[in-house]
Amino acid sequence: MNKRLLALSVAILATLTSQAQSLRPSAGASVVPPLTRTQPEAPHQADFIVAVVNSEPITNNEVRLELQRVLQQLAQQRRPQPDSKELARQVLERLINEKAQLQLARESGIRVDDAAVDQAEQNIARQNQMDVAELHRRVVKDGVVLSQFRAQLRDQLMLTRLRERDVEPRVRVSDLEVDQYLRDQKNSDPATLQVNLAQILVAVPDAASPVQIAALKAKAQRALDRARAGEDFVTLVREFSDAADSATGGQLGLRTTDRYPPLFIEATQNLGAGAVSQLVRSGAGFHILKVLEKSRSGMPAMTVTQSRARHILLRVSPQLSEAAARSKLSEFKKRLVAGQADFATLARDNSQDGSAAQGGDLGWANPGMFVPEFEEVMNRLTPGQISDPLVSRFGVHLIQLTERRNATLSPREQRETVRALLREKKLDETYATWAQDLRGRAYVEMRAPPQ
Q1: Domains of the chain: which residue ranges?
Q2: What is the pLDDT of residues 264-291, one digit of tens each?
Q3: Which of 253, 264, 288, 382 sits at a 20 to 30 Å CA gap from 375?
Q4: Does domain 3-166 have CATH number 3.30.700.20?
């Protein structure tokens, strides 16, 4: 399920747009997706209609239950609760918009079959690290009837498809807009430049003799030579650094340049991400500085952590069930870990993917290039590690991470990153306008205020 589009579905509530939209909840939160409303407990008062949208009613219980869910989320996030009457008004407006959009989706022929709902349940279960049976148990424990849970999943998929059809095609970002944005950022206040540095500090005592200083400088130079030769900087930090930040790999944190010592900025101002400075002498000793990231506020990151992985994909079919595919890949993993098989050979012989001819190699990938369920598992691996079998919308995978690196985006990739940023902004604005227009065309009769 598209998390960005789930977020868009509540964009009309200005005071609630920062609430969690991910299908993976925070610790202690319900596993039910954000838009799911629980079944009512036995109401203490008779229900009544608060609004009618194109002849379909919205009841007081619907508003009350949605309000309870929103208040629960605010409490979990330790956010202050807004005025109750204003919040109830916003919740009712959200329900009106949602009902009008669902009516349009149905009238225009959008349908969601059971297989799509099954897939959505599987995605939610995977993202919460459980199977579908456990998801169902948790849903019931949270007070939700399974048939209602699936009906609401179906509604959200229908809304997603409606917005993909009616909203996304309206959004275009021209080359001129990208050029203008890049010029604006280039001419912005230098104080908006943010830098993340990592350091190795070879400390020099205040009373050090010239001989001691020379020995410490030589030690720092050895560390610098090894860093420039490509050795892992975090390992060198642990070996050489006397700074208190050595436990975090020497990282000083992403901050504006005015919050760094001028010496550090002067030494790194002409360096790109991944580069290492000359020795820098300060009152504390000799510093070796590595540029981890440079960015401007308002600009997307121009350096990314790239991953290179290979995989074996088995597609689920009438001849191969998901359980059988999992079992087969689990056996592959046992053989690989025991050194009895070669990953590339297994991929060439078994993988049902275009990468099979390359031994399953997927090449260097930027964040977001793979489907979330695949990328989430890959990101938890260390180089050389093999995952357990995982299910995606394409089938069942076995992944091995081979390498990981920090890379500066090419000029073309930078432009596409900016284009995506501008498109996201336009998409939010376009959705808000579209939803407002649809709300204006709907017949809405307000009855009694919600209680």
Answers
A1: 3-166, 190-296, 303-408
A2: 988 998 888 888 999 999 988 999 999 8
A3: 253
A4: no
